[in-house]
Amino acid sequence: MENRSELLKKTLKYVDRGKVLELGCGTGENAVYLTLKGFKVAGLDLSKQFIHKCKNLAEIYDVHKNIIFMEKDIVQFEYSEKYDLIISDFVFHFLEKDEIDIVIKNMEENTVVGGLNSVSVFNESNPDRFIHNFIKDELKNYYSGWQILEYESLKGHDFIIAKKIS
Ligand SMILES: C[S@@+](CC[C@H](N)C(=O)[O-])C[C@H]1O[C@@H](n2cnc3c(N)ncnc32)[C@H](O)[C@@H]1O
Predict the structure, then answer these.
(1) What angle in degrees, to the nearest 10, is found between the helix axes of 29-36 and 48-60?
(2) Ligand 1 centroid from CA 69, angstroms
(3) Which of 9, 11, 75, 158 is the most exposed place for a label (fewest CB within 10 A)?
(4) Which atom of ligand 1 lies closest to the CA of 120?
């Protein structure tokens, strides 16, 4: 299982255990990888077809008993527990600005103190126009009260790894 994202590789420098939520988990590679590493993982995606693929992947790697995949809209999702890590890798371009505000507020509130949020987004330098392309520092500004462990604005995309400190 080497098929994992750059964001995840960077994030795993800062955390090696705990409860993880992946928002917009796609076909489940990150989530299954984290489960194999010993994290307790839940993944959400809007796509029924992708959630089906996630469940198949979890069976192939024999981690289906240790992972939860849910077909849900991340904007509507009601949290019932807090997480050590919440990750969202290239999902927010599907959302309107006011929806992103809601999703990140909920992520922040439902992260334990000392826990992390890891997010990658497409920015305005990306040649593709999405529903939302992030402008300079927009992603970082959501995390003004947090410790920024990593933040980079690259050609086409930004990413952040931030730690909740209070
Ligand atoms: C570009 S893919 C990224 C998938 C995965 N994070 C990865 O990096 O491989 C974006 C994913 O976000 C999901 N998505 C888009 N809007 C969503 C929403 N409102 N709620 C849940 N999932 C959503 C899509 O179904 C898709 O699987």
Answers:
(1) 30
(2) 13
(3) 9
(4) 8
Please report whether residue 1 resides in a domain: no
Pocket of ligand 1 (CB under 6 A): 5, 24-26, 44-47, 50, 73-75, 89-91, 94
DSSP 74: T
Residue 117's identity, in one-letter code, is N
Using DSSP bridges, classify how beta strands 40-45 and 147-153 pair: parallel, antiparallel or unpaired.
Answer: unpaired
23-55 pLDDT, tens digit per residue, is: 999 999 999 999 999 999 999 999 999 999 999
The answer to whether position 91 is within a domain reads yes
Q: What global pTM score does this model have?
A: 0.97
Nearest-atom index, ligand 1, CA of 29? 9
Q: What is the C-alpha to C-alpha distance for residues 134 and 83, in angstroms, rounded to an integer?
A: 25
Which strands sit side by side in the sheet containing 147-153, from one edge to the other?
67-71, 40-45, 19-23, 83-89, 111-122, 157-163, 147-153
Share the mean pLDDT of the chain: 96
The total of structural domains in the chain comes to 1
| φ and ψ at residue 71, rounded to 5 degrees | -85, 95
CATH number of the domain enclosing 110: 3.40.50.150
